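Example 9 (inverse folding). The structure is encoded as follows.
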């Protein structure tokens, strides 16, 4: 049996750099031909845990949080659109786009872990928000997404009204933050090393190759 690498990807579905980072990581895995040797789990991180249900205008939010000018916001969005295009992902930024609360999305992602459908759901959430102009804080949107990937919709949606499900996400977030994760995306390799931020494809390939070589030497 081939050695496997465990990847914990700490991210938020509100984070555009997280989908760019994942798509680069995915390309690295494809180019190395090691998909069957990778075990991915998505871990929760909320960039804005106190974001109200109504959300906030995205440009206004970025200007307030990071001190960016409108021109800088637009420039970064254009850069993200270019990166996304290179990786087969479409960013569709639009006037009046709002950033929203992502906690319920994280509850559903935790539910999808049990059936090994986290990545499928995560990508569907990224696509809904960044490509399809959908508000993924709305339950009807979440229900539609859950339906589309063939999860038990009623069981999944019922979790959203359970306080313990919300507490579970907060505990998981606290655990990763306690381990030093303070920004996303962060990819943790075999619980021993990590890369934070979006890396070039060759960096992911190098780290993965080194880990596989180390595991071969040990076996």
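The amino acid assigned to each position is listed next.
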């Amino acid at each position: 049996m081939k050695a496997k690498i465990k990847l914990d990807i700490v991210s938020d579905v509100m984070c555009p750099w997280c989908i760019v980072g994942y798509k680069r990581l995915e390309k690295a895995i494809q180019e190395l031909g090691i998909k069957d040797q990778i075990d991915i789990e998505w871990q929760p991180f909320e960039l804005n845990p106190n974001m109200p249900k109504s959300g906030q205008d995205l440009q206004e939010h970025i200007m307030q949080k990071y001190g960016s000018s409108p021109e800088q916001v637009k420039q970064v969005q254009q850069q993200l659109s270019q990166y996304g295009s290179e990786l087969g992902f479409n960013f569709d930024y639009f006037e009046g786009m709002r950033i929203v609360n992502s906690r319920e999305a994280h509850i559903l992602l935790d539910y999808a872990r049990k059936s090994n459908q986290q990545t499928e759901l995560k990508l569907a959430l990224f696509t809904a928000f960044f490509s399809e102009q959908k508000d993924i804080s709305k339950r009807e949107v979440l229900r539609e997404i859950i339906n589309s990937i063939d999860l038990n919709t009623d069981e999944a949606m019922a979790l959203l009204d359970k306080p313990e499900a919300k507490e579970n996400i907060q505990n998981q977030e606290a655990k990763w933050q306690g381990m030093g994760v303070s920004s996303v995306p962060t990819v943790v390799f075999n619980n021993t090393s990590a890369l934070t931020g979006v890396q070039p494809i060759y960096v992911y390939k190098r780290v993965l190759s080194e880990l596989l070589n180390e595991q071969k030497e040990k076996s």
